[in-house]
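Researcher: I'm comparing several assemblies side by side, and this is the next one on my list. It has 490 residues spread over two chains. Same procedure as the others: predict the full complex and return the structure.
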Amino acid sequence: MLWFNKHARSRKRLSPYIDGQLSPQKRTTLEAHLAGCDACRRELDELRATISAVGGLADVESPRSFAISPRMLERRAAVPLASLPPLATGMRLAGAGLAVALAVVLIGDLGVVGSGDGSRDETGAPRQAAELRMAEYDTEQDAGGAPAPAATGAVGENAPLGVDQASPDDVAMSGEKTEACPSSAGQARDAAAAPEPAPSAPSAGELAACAPAAAEIAPDAGTPANADALRDDGDEGEVAAAPESPSGGGDGVSTLTVIEIILSGGLVALVGGIGIEYILRRRAV
Amino acid sequence: MGIDYDEAELIRRSTQGDLDAFNRLVEQYQRPLYNLCLRMLASAEAAEDATQDAFIAAFRAVHRFRGGQTGGFRAWLFRIAVNACYDEMRRRRSRPSVSLDAPRGESGRTLDVPNPGPTLEERAQTAELGSAIQGALNTLPSDQRLAVILCDVQGMEYGEIALVMGVSLGTVKSRINRARSRLRERLLASGELLPSRFRPNSGDR
């Protein structure tokens, strides 16, 4: 076994040995092994023959001059770009399409809330208001006017969509939280419905202070999905009026959300793709 | 090859965008570069394309070349040529060509870019170019093929090969080692290697 290991190691060293790449010590060891091992000696000879066979490949004369003409530089400048487009153009188009679609969906989302407020305010309310703020406004309106714990219990199975489907306990808790900052709830309403594009700084600040409460009302409130769900119910207080509506509204919203998630995924993939293409191009130069 | 001082001067002028100076370097290096591409691609036509592409890419990038020493320039140029070869392989692979059958054996065993299958015409050329030996080279994974071409055809030192391939000395060593072992097996199997003395015992492994 020891001999076998030594033998295997020796065979690995034959090639570097031929090239003079072994340290003196390894060389001496190998030569000692070679002296007593016919197989290795034969392999050494065969390797030498292989090397000389490969080295004997004809050194071919250059078939033409490869000198570069200025015209070649111009022409070749166009070639790499022209040869890439099939993929690159497609990706760019797809990316542009995705970006537009994503923008449309997002604007559409905000627009839904805006028009909801718009029933009270024709100027269309502050569409620029950040999504979080809107979500909080809706949350508060919803929680404040959510007198239908029984109904929410009925839809409880569709859990992932937030306050409207939360358990009675959660709703009770949300009531407390809302009371913890009632003034800002009022201001939230004002801010969202204010005709000025920019809500006053104080109320925005207080809204931010209320954020933890909103988050606790709906354990999942941090996600856009919940913002959508809440927003839908927030409009005109439909929860109170029609207990069944949450599940229907939830479905519509979740479809929208899925589309958004898919689009976002596409966008991420696109950015990755562009990155890869960039790297490949750099490597090619 | 050439007078070193001249070359350093030509490189310096090339880095400043002097095309005439660069073309004198092209004259000096076109033969080894073309031969490298020819052995890598096993096709005269592909090798011409790759060589030209390599020189053009080199001229575009030469202003970024640092270190005026000659050995550095050769390794740098060869590295660009190697990239051009890989690009050419990719291009030819993506283009559906008359690939009757690649040399049997290695296909699928490694993940690297395989040599493009030879067309009839290319096979005829291969025949001119050292037939069995080029055929055996073609069966190697491209990184091993490159290592053994640089070492045994171009006669480069391990250190320079490491620069060209962008890998460590140890990797160069093991690639050359494996490449030669495989070539030895193939050449023994096809009866190319020293017919009289060793063939009867070639099955000892």
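Model: For your comparison table: The mean pLDDT of chain A is 61.
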